[in-house]
Design a protein that fits this description.
Elements lengths: L4 H5 L22 E3 L5 E3 L1 H10 L2 H17 L8 H13 L4 H9 L2 H4 L11
Antiparallel strand pairs: 1-2
Helix pairs in contact: 3-4, 4-5
Length: about 120
């Protein structure tokens, strides 16, 4: 129950993303797993379908949070929740094009008023 089903589904790839069918001990790779919610998956294609169809909103929200945190150079705060929601909405309305998220961020007050941006760097 505590084993990572996502990891098993991705076992068909090595550490740098090359496809593999056998492990280092020359045993066949097993990519079937049961996720925490009980959904069975077999390989990366099943996992992709699960994330795309059943967990799309969760993945989208986390993507927006991480992208926003990176863009702002800080952790996402409770006050950023409306911006994250706006990013998600813009992505949906623009067929999930990455540029919609970027544009939402760069037009936001949080981005336009990043602290320290007018402070000269020490030489």
């Amino acid at each position: 129950a505590r084993i990572d089903g996502y990891g098993f589904a991705l076992e068909g790839y090595d550490a740098i993303g090359r496809a593999r069918t056998r492990d280092l001990g020359d045993r066949p790779i097993e990519t079937s797993a049961k996720l925490m919610d009980g959904t069975p998956v077999s390989g990366a294609n099943d996992l992709r379908g699960y994330l795309l169809n059943q967990k799309r909103d969760v993945v989208l929200r986390q993507f927006c949070r991480k992208l926003l945190g990176y863009a702002l150079g800080r952790g996402v705060q409770l006050s950023d929740k409306p911006l994250v929601a706006r990013m998600q909405q813009q992505l949906r309305e623009h067929d999930y094009h990455f540029s919609a998220a970027i544009e939402t961020i760069v037009r936001s007050q949080q981005f336009l008023q990043i602290r320290g941006s007018d402070t000269p760097l020490d030489e």
